[in-house]
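Re: the multi-chain job from yesterday

Posting the exact lines I submitted so nobody has to dig through the queue logs.
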Amino acid sequence: MNRSTARSQGQLGSLIVSAMFVLAGAVTLYDTLSYTDRDSRVFPQTVAIILIVCASISFIMRFIKPTGEGGFGQGIWWRRVLLISTMVLTCLVMPIVGFLPAGIIAFAGGLIAAMHDRWTLPNILIYWGAGGIIMLVFYTLFKFVLNVPLP
Amino acid sequence: MELDQFLAAITPLNFALALFGVLAGTIVGSIPGLTATMALAVLVPVTFAMEPASALILLGAIYTGAIYGGAYAAILLNTPGTPSAIATTFDGYPMAKRGDGDLAVALACFASVFGGMVGALALLFLAPPLSKVALAFGPIEYFWLSVFGLSLIASLSNGNLMKGLAGGAFGMLLSTVGVAEVSADIRLTFGSQTLIGGFGVVGALIGLYCIPVLIDLVAVPGRHLKVEENVKAVRIGDAFRLALQSKFNLVRSSVIGTLIGILPGAGGSVAGLVAYSEAKRTAKPHQKFGEGEAGGIMATESANSATVGGGFIPTLVLGIPGTPPDAIVLGALLVQGVRTGPAMFTQSGSIVYTFIYGLLIATILMLPTGLLIGRYAYKSIVTIPKAVLVPTVGFMTIIGTFSIRNSVSDVIIMLCLGVFGWVVAQFGFAASPIVLGLILGPIAEQGFVQGWIIGDATNNLFGMFFGRPISQGILAFTLITLILPIFLARKKSKLNVELES
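And the result, structure tokens for all chains:
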């Protein structure tokens, strides 16, 4: 990524996040109109106004004085996406297949995403073996010692 | 009489229970998602068959250990193991990243032991008079206390106050999602059943602190933390020297922790944040808080550990539990047939004093056990390959978040907050102000609304918010915290200009 792309990405991203916060404040103010009790309204309304004011100032300042700060920087995107998507997939299939099989998906996703070395047979055996033991230990601790009703 | 109780506290059984409690508590506290409350709730039935004093010693030791254990994950993974360790991440993780994780772990241990001792000694000698502090704090004082905690945003904003304030306000809005505590209106759920329960603090903490670290870790090769050639044991000598240099910080933070522990509902997270804020406010020019400053870790850890003893003061003297773990201990006391109240120290003195001595012994035992566990925790985290560390931590975030309310939705919310936190952090909106808003929002709202109702009913809104002496004191500290850095910066730049000219 060249410097000017990073600069414009940082500028645009910062403006979008500020605008998003302003929008969140506006949505909150709209939502408070439906509350029946004044006591429920007063705090979120006050905070929403503070949010709108601060995010607007941040937006305007960034617009008037653009800087190159911010941006997604370096890093391999497919690894980030793989990590998060397997964790989300785990949540979705957990009620169907159970906690441990779903947990294996998250663990496998995380392992593949974080593996920057070359895959060798000893690596595969050690890492997957360690993963299996760790998952079993935590599953046993939570399910049978702490009595957490894992699906 | 008190010598008898001391001797009763150090019987082999009670000593073993204290040691087991500290060990178990430290391990539980170090796992993100497992809280002191959960550990105590699981073990309470075990204590029913024990002698009352032994049962209390075990529960107190678990609580003490769990509060300290939260520091490991905060320092080594940027994830507070318990909410009390939020402020430990501010300097602990930067220290670990620059290769001083072993020192940070040792500092946290020394500070926790010191803070725990101050809290326990206050419980031993000053419980009845100090319990009056809890009664002196009304809703407005709680409101101003949370505002004081929020003033820390100014220093967590990475040089952009508006972004920090926006993040803090957004965090407070997140805290209002779900059923309103004061009047039971359903807020900001947009028809979703999932959001009615609101955002769980522990899940949000895990998401906002831990998931961004994992996203960054997988994207680039290389080690998680910087490591010296030979991984050392925990640096006890260096930590002790730094602790001695920071003795005033330790004493002040421990006193703050004890006093905030006395306030029902405030707890270790607020104590840690307030002590950190005070340590930063009074820092010397060369101290760089937020960039791996030892004083930041010591302030937070001594304060949150001091809340253990402090929290037992209103629990035992007034029967008002300050935090959920205190409530569990109170329940265990009632099951044992011990009645709390001002007369408890005379009527059930043998049990109470044995318990307090047991708590002191457990706190002292935290030093060897904490340093030993810290040594292995540090070595494991720095030597474990990233390909195993990332999925293990990822798996722990899922199981830990699920276990809080047994809800898959909480895990999804945690992941969404994590990705959101990572994205906004790339553009200068740090996660810490959001977390601060989320933690302090409910305390601020409850105090604000209750104060507003009372002030409105008595036709004295201004007097209600600004006329009470404790409120004025907290407000003055808040203003000093906010204004002093600006004043000093201007003075410094003026001086520089004069020197240059």
